[in-house]
Write a structure and sequence with these properties.
Length: about 850
């Protein structure tokens, strides 16, 4: 029997440790075996890409070994597990991250060099896994790395989009979108699990039935689609643990539509069945505006339903009493996108497991924790009731049930305050009656998390004030963090060795607070010299990339001033461009001797605009128009270069961040929930030029305001301060805007609306109000840059002060204060 076979195998093998050897000779043999048997090329004739494939498969074998052992161990220990549900994971490349976390990078490099290949060249062959849009999605990826490293018993769940985030192509300065068919060349990092599949139901109708006087609901679906699991092992660093990220792909259901087969319409029947696959085809490229699209809702439910079935199946393998469920299962929902999971668990418990409402409700309320990443109410997801009722009729009923009970309870607590009752209701009345997914998530979760302290204040005082007043104990924040494994160790090996050398240990890679030890050496000229050398090497790498991707040659003596992130009005790339225009105008108006005093700059901007976001697309075009003018002006030369790096993504970030001197995070105060790009720059010793928004406020506390360039006034913890009347607009601002308006950079008509949006009363994001302060901060950066000792000292202190912003710290906080999970370490 299966059980006997398993017991025998356990006795024979114990844990699989030691099956695969990691010395260079064994690795070499392994790679060659994969060349022959997996890639099916001759070992005498294979190219870089084929070598990359074989190498990846060899790494994958090692990942699988650990991953099996980890799951075997979890199974034995049966700890409370966390299920991290996110519709987006921006993983980027896997090879380098995996070999670093497995601790066998050098061994592979040696094995490859003996075969005549260079590790770095092969690593460059890999494309990005871009199953996400921006900050929220990369945060999930960083958190998975920390969860694995800290040995937490976790499963990640998401969707396996066939098309990830679009590729950005720039033609004549305009953004064009091309599909990202990332699976075209195979994906060695996933394991297809055809035997792990679940049916997901849509549409149909609900009937009430009764048996022995007990009423119950039966949902007869109108469509069924299969969800097939693809598993992606995520290795921890310095541990044997490797956790699983399970992504679902849609496949046609095995249940045939007999009718159409019988009527002889065989071809059409097959074609229609195949349409099921479209559910997991493509990632929605706009993370913030929910457009009430049916396909998007289908994606959400598809992923949620498959995950919940998988999770409940795993629970029931070992437990038969649902009272134990919240002690064994913690759900984390990443924004409201997976919040249908709440309703789905309720539905399964009530309709399928036959629990009564009270019991099911108690279980759900103890199991779910919710994180919101948003600061404005317009960004919150609302699903039209008509759409929900047609696609998920039973779920809509349950939502109404939750709301009815909640409203009754609330009336008892707050009385007849109808406007407050209306605001807190899950159902929004209006022209389009909708379900407010945030209200649903708050009501049903035990913890509501913000992503920075300032964000938490906004949640309490504005966004969710009504709920905070009702349940203050539910609200918490865990300031975001990023993983130092990817953002220093993988992407900046030079800095990584330098840090380890000066700290005398590599322990900071797991305990990043140790970086604070650099503080005492910040003024040491020897470290400073080595620090600058490392930066220069990274700048050379970046300069090469800029030249190949944009054709612009840049000088290494210039300050590399970078703003890379999604293009959004509130992130104010436009403020940056207007600042560049001001700088250009100043240079043009100087005499030759004054020009000699100018600090040379390379202004680097990168980021994608959502395909339907017209203003953001105009900002990209303006950046190119300004670049065209500036870069071709002989008066300017190397004093100023402007480059737009196309197709910004995780692997481009890994190149850009280590190579920059200054980075900009200049969102209008009160608009960035946290921001995580700033943390990556900080770790890499790039100085920040930033507004006191989101987590920057906490960064300033860690490094001291004197070690960065602050735009706007010093911290105003009072979020209301955003509403103060704007200071007058400066003459410089009027001048630069009129240059754009008058066609100095061409495309006069096209930029008209951008200029209109900067008029006094329309300047919603306060560019005019902040312009003077922005220019002052920039001028200050210039002054410091020429003082190499001071700049380097600030740079070292930035890295030294970045410890708090590791996702390891964030995850520890979640584990303790939200999820109630403990590490479960697989023995080595
Ligand atoms: N964020 O990336 C997204 N997408 C959204 O739809 C909403 C928020 C970002 O999430 C990051 C991770 O929490 C934050 O750092 C960032 O401020 C926020 O804009």
């Amino acid at each position: 029997s299966l059980g006997e076979r398993r017991a025998k195998a356990e006795k024979m093998f114990g844990l699989m440790d030691g099956f695969l050897k990691n010395d260079p000779m064994s690795l070499q043999k392994d790679i060659l075996d994969h060349v022959e048997y997996t890639v099916a090329r001759s070992r005498f004739n294979f190219d870089d890409f084929e070598a990359f494939q074989a190498l990846s498969h060899s790494v994958r074998d090692r990942l699988i070994e650990r991953w099996h052992d980890t799951h075997q161990h979890f199974k034995k220990q049966d700890p409370k597990r966390l299920y991290f549900l996110s519709l987006e994971f921006l993983m980027g490349r896997s090879l380098s991250n995996s070999v670093i976390n497995l601790g066998i990078r050098d061994e592979y490099a040696e094995a490859l060099s003996q075969l005549g290949f260079e590790y770095e060249v092969l690593a460059e062959q890999e494309g990005d896994a871009a199953l996400g849009n921006g900050g929220l999605a990369r945060l999930s990826a960083c958190q998975m790395d920390s969860l694995a490293t800290l040995d937490y018993p976790v499963w990640g769940y998401g969707l396996r989009y066939q098309y990830g985030l679009f590729r950005q192509v720039i033609v004549d300065g305009y953004q064009h979108e091309q599909p990202d068919y990332w699976l075209n060349f195979g994906n060695p990092w996933e394991i297809e699990r055809i035997q792990v599949s679940y049916s997901v139901k849509f549409y149909g109708m609900v009937e009430e039935k009764a048996s022995n006087g007990v009423k119950y609901k039966v949902w007869t679906p109108g469509e069924t689609v299969e969800a097939v699991a693809y598993d992606n092992p995520i290795p921890g660093y310095g541990t044997r643990n490797a956790i699983n990220l399970r992504l679902w792909a849609a496949k046609p259901s095995g249940q045939y539509d007999l009718e159409s087969y019988n009527t002889g319409d065989y071809i059409n029947a097959i074609v229609n069945r195949q349409k099921a696959e479209t559910i997991s085809y493509v990632l929605y490229p706009d993370d913030r505006s929910y457009q009430g699209k049916e396909l998007r809702l289908k994606q959400q439910y598809f992923f949620v339903s498959a995950s919940v079935q998988d999770i409940i199946r795993r629970f029931k393998d070992v437990h038969d009493n649902f009272d134990e469920f919240p002690d064994k299962v913690a759900f984390q929902i990443n924004d409201t996108h997976p919040s249908l999971a709440i309703v789905e668990v309720l539905r399964v418990l009530i309709d399928e497991e036959c629990l009564d409402w009270g019991k099911a409700w108690e279980i759900v309320c103890r199991a779910f924790s919710f994180t919101t990443h948003t600061v404005n109410t317009e960004g919150l997801e609302k699903i039209p009731v008509d759409l929900l009722g047609s696609l998920l009729p039973r779920h809509l009923q349950i939502m109404y049930d939750i709301n009815h009970r909640f409203m009754e309870d609330l009336k008892r607590k707050i009385g007849q305050d109808y406007s407050r009752l209306e605001r807190m209701s899950i159902v929004e009345e209006g022209i389009v009656k909708s379900i407010r997914m945030a209200n649903l998530s708050i009501i049903c979760s035990h913890t509501v998390n913000g992503v920075s302290r300032v964000h938490f204040e906004l949640l309490k005082t504005r966004l969710f004030k009504d709920f905070y007043d009702l349940w203050p104990q539910k609200f918490q924040y865990k300031t975001n963090g990023v993983t130092q494994r990817r953002w220093i160790v993988v992407s900046n090996p030079g800095l990584c060795s330098l840090i380890s050398k000066w700290l005398g240990t590599e322990a900071w890679i797991r305990n990043v607070d140790l970086l604070a030890g650099l503080r005492e050496h910040a003024s040491n000229p020897v470290l400073q010299q080595e620090w600058r050398m490392t930066k220069t090497i990274n700048k050379m790498r970046l300069a090469d990339y800029i030249e190949t991707s944009t054709g612009v040659k840049v000088s290494l003596d210039a300050m590399f001033d970078v703003q890379v992130k999604r293009i959004h009005e509130y992130k104010r790339q436009l403020l940056n461009i207007l600042g560049i225009i001001y700088r250009y105008d100043c240079i043009k108006n100087m005499n030759k001797s004054d020009r000699k005093k100018v600090v040379p700059r390379v202004c680097i901007i990168g980021g994608k605009a959502a395909p339907g976001y017209e203003v953001a697309k105009k900002i990209i075009k303006l950046c190119h128009a300004v670049a065209d003018k500036v870069n071709n002006d002989d008066d300017v030369g190397d004093l100023l270069k402007v480059v737009f790096i196309p197709d910004y993504n995780v692997s481009v970030a890994e190149l850009v961040i280590p190579g920059s001197d200054l980075s900009q995070h200049i969102s209008t105060v009160g608009h960035e929930a946290s921001g995580t790009g700033s943390m990556k720059f900080l770790m890499n010793g790039c100085l920040l030029l930033a507004t006191a928004d989101g987590s920057t406020v906490e960064i300033i506390e860690e490094i001291g305001v004197e070690n960065m360039f602050l735009v706007g006034t010093k911290l105003h913890e009072d979020p209301q301060s955003g509403d103060k009347p704007a200071p007058g607009v400066s003459i410089q601002f009027i001048r630069v805007v009129s240059m754009v308006r008058n066609g100095y950079f061409g495309f006069k008509e096209y930029f008209n609306s951008l200029c209109d949006s900067l008029e006094d009363d329309k300047d919603f994001y306060k560019l005019g109000a902040d312009f003077s302060s922005y220019l002052e901060a920039q001028a200050m950066a210039d002054r410091v840059f020429v003082n190499k000792e001071k700049w380097t000292c600030m740079s070292i202190l930035s890295t030294a002060g970045s410890g708090k912003f590791s996702s390891d710290r964030t995850i520890e906080e979640y584990a303790k204060h939200a999820w109630g999970i403990e590490p479960c370490k697989c023995p080595f």
